[in-house]
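Task card 7
Instruction: Convert sequence to structure tokens.
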Amino acid sequence: MFSNYDINGIHSNFSNLNLYSHETAPTSVIPNEDVKVCDVHVGWKKDIMCLDCEYLVCAGCWMLNHSGHTKDTSKSALISSLVDKDSYQTIANNRLRSLWSTLNILSTLYQTASNTNNEVSEHFKSLYEYLMVQEHKLKAPFHQQLERTRTATQAIIKELKDINVLLSTIKNTTKNKTPPLFSPFSSPLKESAVDGHSSTSSKRKNSNYNSDNDSPEEEENDTIDIEDMDQVLESIKRITSMERFISKAFTSSTGNKDGGHNDEILTDFELQPLIEQSLQYMKDAPRIQLTSTPLVQVNQQLLLDIRKQITSCFTFLDPNNQMAPFNTRMFSIGDSDYSMYSINPSLAMSPRANGYTPRTGVCTSTVYAKGNVYIFGGVENQKTYAYYNLAEQTWHDNLPIDTIQGGFDISACYDGLDTIYLVGGYSEGRRWSRVDSFNIMKKMFSHVGKLRYELSAAITFVHNLEVIIVGGFFAKKQQRVCISSFDPVITKVNRVLLQDESTNNKCGSMLISCCFDGDENVYVLSGAGVFLSFSLETGKLVSRSYTPPRLGNSLFYIPNCGPVLQGGKDHNYHYSVKDNKWSPIPGIFDGEPRGVRALCLIPSI
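Output:
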């Protein structure tokens, strides 16, 4: 359909008008100052319009080449002639419809791309959320171990701090006052050790720094924030000496950080209970339970396979061949089963098990659209519809027809985009003139308009965005119409294209079947054995040969093949438009379901 959207097409349409027969034809149909002077007769003005040739000429050219033709000296004669003949109006209308059709296609392509993009995003979002859940489950034991480790570390750091503070307090108390005789630190050795070994202690301290290759300045600057568990645990692995860790964690250059050096001096009576409490705590302290960190074994090959599987879950399809397995096949629905057949006998498929509620009165309401076969209404199920997904080979049955009239003998046709039109039908003891629509993307029904007459069981299709209606059963005392059109997009007008009288009343309600070639020709087969073709562009009606020994049930047009008549086993024929001749096609449609209720052509994609 994109071939219609060719900018050169509008030029070819105008060139087909054959407005000028001379090689020196002007480049514009509207006379202006640049084309008033004749190129042949210098200085002569082209002020005569030859109405026969539809060409503006000078007096010399008129006498030489147009003598005896009808002339008009009005400058607007050519334009008036075109308007009177509806030449421009016809071309313009066709072009507008072509452009509008292309816009609809572009809109559908955009919507399809957008929907597909969103669908892919949703799939990956679902995968991402699933992976997050699995990651959380997998990491839960590690989070628990981390939490247990932090809690135990905090408890140990607090105890280290408390012991360090108490030791510092004991040191300050025994150093700055003469202890009583009963003091546990009253020994001269202890006292001299406390009072007289400051220099030695300092030397040992400096020695310790040197042995670890650290300077006092680095020691002072490299403190540990005990509130930062990550830093504390990292420092424990780095620092090999408990004394250095305590020095960095609980002291600073000020000599008082987090209970590091405590200059407070307590009396013996104040200090003794603190020592006793500390001793009792250390004696009764529960043993910290240590648990091993769980280990995880990762199957790298399986992960790689899963990545490949995710990639293989998404496959780009050729939009021109995604239904290749079903190209030019017939979907046949019977009383208790359904089948798929092909013009090529080798591609015929055996009947499948029943997967839907049997329906009658659905011969004209069965239609193919975008990978699905839809069936609307039916005598037994007037307010429901069903569809069969060809790719998934699954039925979706008894879906409600809401907001519009149901019924049976409804006429359904697909516009090639995203809409199926439902025309007429029979319910509640009467026929209907309704035209409704069904959006195959949203699965929603809506009302479009009305025909000028009531009918059922017509055959419909879409051409240039118009619904073409062929034959059908009409209400009593109502003039029968063979072919009409309805514009559901712009005007909502119903036009009669061919009255039944034009076919000697051989069409209308006597119609058995018809098909459309997708271009302009409608092929009609009536109950009287009359086979006709009608051009939607020119309105030309042609009587054609019909030689099959009996009337077929359904007429289909298959591209690159032509009209095909399905008449049951050994009664299937192909019509050659070029030779005006019917030829039998053996071996197809031989295993159709019992009691065929509907046939639907699955077109080549």
